[in-house]
Amino acid sequence: MEGMDTSFPSAVDLKMHMDNYPKRGWFPRFSESTKGNVDYCSGRGGAQMTPEAIWLEPGDVIPNNPTFPLLLYRGVLKVDDRAAGFEALFRRNGWGNMWRNGVYPFHHYHSKTHEALGFSIGTATLMLGGPTGLKIEIHAGDAAVLPAGTGHCRLSASSDFLVVGAYPAGADYDLCRDEPTPEQMKRIQSLAAPSTDPVTGGSGGLVALWC
């Protein structure tokens, strides 16, 4: 991409850098420079998608994920119909069981599967990681990949806020608001990384950072 900063570390270097940190606690936020390209659904391909990897510490109720960081993508799609664009992108990369809705206004997480969120219309302020987590601003065209156990909650949103949700291989999902049971915690800790990233497909993204 024109004007791309080539000083970013490689995916391998970044993974080694991440492995130097313990698996729990708050961590510096950093990005991975992906090698592969992602095709925009408008046909204007060639833009490199660079996710921000965010580690979230466990809370009293929200477990978050001890193995994988949350991935945040900015400006994934610039088409007019971003909802249809995210659905096509997720489907092409093997993620399904999709829905169109918003984000619940209460802290919750999923113990059965990882989740992709494609922010299609409007803006929102979300709290990630539980009540003591990270507050972020979301804009249309952004996307997030939430590993199982990751807390998320809508603090505020525009009246037209619309999200597309999807799950690896069309997995079923649950809705958890209470402290995880031992069975749920074991499931979160043992859930493997998907074979593809919902945004970048078979390379980059979680394929590089969750290996």
Provide key terms for this protein.
211 residues, alpha+beta, Jelly Rolls, 7-stranded antiparallel β-sheet, 4 helices, 25% strand, globular, disordered N terminus
Question: What's the short story on this structure?
Answer:
Helix content is 16%, strand content 25%.
Describe the structure.
With 211 residues, the protein is of the alpha+beta class. The chain has a single domain, classed as Jelly Rolls, CATH 2.60.120. Helix content is 16%, strand content 25%. Strands 1-2-3-8-5-10-4 form a seven-stranded antiparallel β-sheet, with helices on one face. The protein has a three-stranded antiparallel β-sheet with strand order 7-6-9, with no helix packed on it.
Write the topology of this structure.
Blueprint: H1 11-19, E1 30-31, E2 52-54, E3 70-73, H2 82-92, E4 95-101, E5 115-121, E6 123-128, E7 134-139, E8 143-146, E9 152-157, E10 162-168, H3 182-190, H4 206-209
Antiparallel strand pairs: 1-2, 2-3, 3-8, 4-10, 5-8, 5-10, 6-7, 6-9
Q: Under the CATH scheme, which class?
A: Mainly Beta
Taken together, the total number of domains comes to 1
The mean pLDDT is 83
Please provide the count of β strands. 10
- Identify the CATH homologous superfamily: Jelly Rolls
Low-confidence stretches: 1-47
Cα gyration radius (Å): 16 Å
Strand content: 15-25%
Query: What separation lies between the terminal Cα atoms?
Result: 26 Å
Strand order of the largest sheet: 1-2-3-8-5-10-4
